[in-house]
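[job 4471] stage=fold_predict status=RUNNING
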Amino acid sequence: MRTYVAVLVCVAESAAASGGQAPLYRESFVLLTARTEDEARSKARAHGEGLETSYRNEKGELITWTFRQLVDVAEVPDDRLGDGADLYTRHFRDFAAYTAFEPLLSGEDL
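[job 4471] inference complete, writing structure tokens
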């Protein structure tokens, strides 16, 4: 068995979104064990679908989390998971765009 990391994107939407509330997206990095990358992809999709849920928030609004996309599956390069182990690396060129979509970097409260 090998260890893989899957990058999943889910979206939370509210029935009250017509009031201008933008959807909230969540990017998750999930560790999986599988024999092959295809098996890991299948397990990742099943995991993402298992994250789907609906509930009422403190205002009574219906919030629905939906699995949106499996972005990537990659074998974890270091079998010795522990302090300092790399799980996943990605590269990008536009830091301003990254800051704009990452609420924690832009100072937005979730």
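[job 4471] summary: Helices lie at 37-50, 95-101, 103-106.
[job 4471] exit 0
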